[in-house]
Amino acid sequence: KITIAVARIAQQMQDKLYLGNLDALRDWGYAKDYVECMWLMLQHDTPEDFVIATGEMHSVR
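-> structure tokens emitted (61 positions)
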């Protein structure tokens, strides 16, 4: 979103950069850990529902 907005500003197609809610919270983790979880899920013989998360919330700000 940011790079598209910057390009549009450079082309004078818009005049402001809108960032949205900077106080939004997200559960961000290390990609390698998530890929390992995906592999472990594939090792199950029967399909199941899984929740993969760090349990730690981080703000965008």
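The chain has a mean pLDDT of 94.
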